[in-house]
Amino acid sequence: MRILIVDDVPDNIRVLSRMLAEDRHEIFASTNGREALTIAESFVPDLILLDVMMPGMDGYETCMALKANPLLQSIPVIFVTALSDTDDETRGLSLGAVDYITKPFKEAIVKLRVRTHLELKQQRDLLGRLTRIDGLTGIPNRRAFDDRLDAEWRRAIRVQNQLTLAMIDIDHFKPFNDNYGHVEGDACLRRVAETLEAGANRGEDFMARYGGEEFVLLSGSTGQAGMASLVEKLRAAIDALRIPHCASSVAPWVTVSIGAALCRPTPEMQPTDLVELADAELFTAKRLGRNRVSVTARNGL
């Protein structure tokens, strides 16, 4: 498990690191709040031990910043402090901290509280994953996609990166269901989902079921040529399955149409702008005959 220790006194970091070393956690450290936020965004720890009294950005401000970030807000924060006033403890808990560890450190207490909150986080993460998985196909669902898009959008604005989004629709899927029945329709959806997920296998690729017979791919910056190559590979992979579809006017097997868009997010834009761009390209792919891709790239809307 990954633990981030934030304390402006390096000796305190060394003491806590030594206490936790036996449990073979991966330890990250920072001596100030702003650096801690950067580290947390880069490595997304499972738990943060956060000193309250730090110069500049103190522990309370750092905790508020963590809880305001959708990517980091679920990370449990344990405040580390020499303060013993009830009001101080109440303030920290009201900001979203899950516990307090007081100085001077007692090794047994530190280990027990860290272990308890890591176990609780593992349970919450498991439940969270279950609510974000599509029950039929086993890939992430619309809720998971919406959360991922929001987080990646914020990150792209911060680092001035580009985002790619592709909308993927099975051609004439209603006639498929009408002709072969819903059991075969479900089997078709599972095969298509499995193939799409296998094709979008880079670390930055995120494939989800958007709804019905529609899937969505969110990816990092690949450039327009890279984006076009990726979605064409996905289209060809579905075409190569040769799932029979005698009710299609496109081909005697199942095919997909794909609309993809790339943009560089700005604070003036919304994530839905990119979704609408990709959806418009999907409409173009369908209008041009289906079983094809249509792509666009824009740096502003």
Produce a short descriptive summary.
The protein has 301 residues and is an alpha/beta fold. It is built from 10 helices and 10 strands.
Q: Describe it for me?
A:
The protein has 301 residues and is α/β, with parallel strands linked by helices. The chain folds into 2 domains: 2-131, Response regulator (Rossmann fold, 3-Layer(aba) Sandwich), CATH 3.40.50.2300; 142-298, Alpha-Beta Plaits (2-Layer Sandwich). Helices cover 49% and strands 19% of the residues. It has 10 helices and 10 strands. It has helices spanning 10-21, 33-43, 59-68, 86-94, 107-131, 142-159, 173-180, 182-199, 223-241, 271-287; strands at 2-6, 26-30, 47-51, 77-81, 99-102, 163-170, 206-211, 214-219, 256-263, 293-298. The protein has a 5-stranded parallel beta sheet with strand order 2-1-3-4-5, with helices on both faces. A 5-stranded mixed beta sheet has the order 7-8-6-9-10, sandwiched between helices. It is elongated, with a radius of gyration of 24 Å.
